[in-house]
Q: What sequence folds into this?
């Protein structure tokens, strides 16, 4: 089978990791960006050429409904953003402090926090979520101590598909004087997020997931930059005679040559979504998610971890069947790409699956109802088969 | 049958390596019979697809009858021995 035929036969349900396929608008814009000379303000400028970083920041400010594009910093991905913010915030405090986080976090949060805990810089409280994957605001308040300075909270979860009430939580944290970082890797591009009315201190996003960009581009919104110490210095294209790295945004956290094709992909992805409208995107993915959840919940041996997820993430197991076997057969025999394992969420999986892992199907706007029907039919075939011995 | 490509798939918590072995022809029941001579083979059926797990002292192999990829797990120290065994089985 040729590569092209193989790709066209795929049913890709691993969008929570990276969306695929990419819209043609994104591919064309990246092609343009690669062909263009790499220009940027302060280094080289031609009037007719696009300044991708500037254009990308404008697009982000509009997308998140904020005024100042310079509050947006480009990074490699959400992991990069979270490390810059967590370690940068910790570097700004001289004494040890207390951090609140949730059991829903990805290793991109768990590992930086655990690294700080190991050095004695922080103590950590991990608050649980309920059966639907939502954290209780009372648990958050109960976890506060006189030494609490930071909260790192998962906005949308990559296993349960649950979305936290970021507006209420951010108000609580602001009132308590706690610096808040929200991980929006799974929500950005899925649901409308208005940072003009949500009181977060920092909000993390990535390009290659639901913004339909390419891998290698992400970023964060930072309301008050002076609260995070930059841990990297280098060339910025201006003030080059100074031996000290500029303090103003966004250069405070950006040095070296930007990822022009990545930024272009992010810009084109946002434009693509804005043209469709996030409400329409959400309506389509919700319809497909409800269909799959409804079918799976009727299969007697299927364990559905979140029967009504807030985002199109469906995690399940089939009783008595190794999830790795299910993923292998779906992928190799039926060309259905899922993600098995613990999804870089060890705390949550310890509670949900006893650390054994499960099968995750995550949809995007570019999946179809026909694909959903086919996948459910195949899983039904697995459930009905009685010759499996584990 | 011959091995066309080997790639590292993941590393387990106990330090063992999981590698993908790509074969030029699909695994068949004759290959399973060969495997049974040197270790234990468990066959399972999932939705009409036959899955197998081979276990010996130094390695495990997981895969499907009719597929051209098998997943091999072994300790790093056993790499040379495993490569020799794989080349012998899938020669």
A:
């Amino acid at each position: 089978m040729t590569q092209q035929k193989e790709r066209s036969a795929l049913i890709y349900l691993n969008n929570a990791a990276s969306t695929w396929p990419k819209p043609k608008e994104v591919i064309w814009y990246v092609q343009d960006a690669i062909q263009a000379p790499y220009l940027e303000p302060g280094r080289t400028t031609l009037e007719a050429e696009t300044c991708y970083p500037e254009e990308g920041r404008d697009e982000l400010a509009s997308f998140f409904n904020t005024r100042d594009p310079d509050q947006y910093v480009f990074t490699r991905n959400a992991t990069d953003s979270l490390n810059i913010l967590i370690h940068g915030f910790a570097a700004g405090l001289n004494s040890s402090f207390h951090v609140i986080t949730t059991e829903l976090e990805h290793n991109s949060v768990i590992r930086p926090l655990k690294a700080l805990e190991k050095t004695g810089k922080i103590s950590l409280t991990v608050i649980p979520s309920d059966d639907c994957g939502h954290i209780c605001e009372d648990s958050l308040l109960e976890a506060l101590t006189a030494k609490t300075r930071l909260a790192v909270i998962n906005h949308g979860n990559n296993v349960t598909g649950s979305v936290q009430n970021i507006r209420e939580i951010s108000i609580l944290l602001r009132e308590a004087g706690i610096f808040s970082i929200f991980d929006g890797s799974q929500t950005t591009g899925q649901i409308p997020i208005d940072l003009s009315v949500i009181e977060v201190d920092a909000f993390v996003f990535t390009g290659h997931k639901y913004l339909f960009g390419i891998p290698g581009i992400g970023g964060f919104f930072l309301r008050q930059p002076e609260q995070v110490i930059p841990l990297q210095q280098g060339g910025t294209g201006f003030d080059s005679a100074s031996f000290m790295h500029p303090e103003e945004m966004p250069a405070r956290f950006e040095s070296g040559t930007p990822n022009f094709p990545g930024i272009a992909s992010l810009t084109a992805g946002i434009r693509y979504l804005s043209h469709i409208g996030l409400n329409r995107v959400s309506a389509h993915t919700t319809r497909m998610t409800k269909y799959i959840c409804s079918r799976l919940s009727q299969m007697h041996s299927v364990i559905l971890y979140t029967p009504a997820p807030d985002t199109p993430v469906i995690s399940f197991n089939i009783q008595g069947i190794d999830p790795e076997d299910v993923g292998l057969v779906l992928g190799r025999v039926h060309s259905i790409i899922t993600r098995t394992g613990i999804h870089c969420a060890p705390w949550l999986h310890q509670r949900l699956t006893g650390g054994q892992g499960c099968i995750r199907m995550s949809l995007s706007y570019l999946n179809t109802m026909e694909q959903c029907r086919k996948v459910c039919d195949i899983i039904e075939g697995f459930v009905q088969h009685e010759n499996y011995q584990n | 049958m011959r091995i066309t490509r080997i790639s590292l798939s993941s590393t387990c918590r106990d330090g063992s390596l999981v590698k993908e072995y790509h074969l030029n022809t699909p695994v068949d029941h004759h290959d399973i019979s060969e495997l049974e001579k040197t270790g234990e083979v468990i066959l399972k059926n999932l939705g009409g697809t036959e899955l197998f797990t081979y276990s010996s002292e130094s390695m495990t192999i997981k895969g499907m009858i009719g597929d051209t990829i098998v997943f091999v797990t072994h300790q790093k120290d056993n790499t040379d021995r495993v490569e020799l065994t794989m080349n012998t089985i899938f020669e």
Remarks:
- Chain A touches chain B through 16 residues (CB under 8 Å).
- Residues 301 and 309 of chain A are 20 Å apart (CA to CA).
- The radius of gyration of chain A is 22 Å.
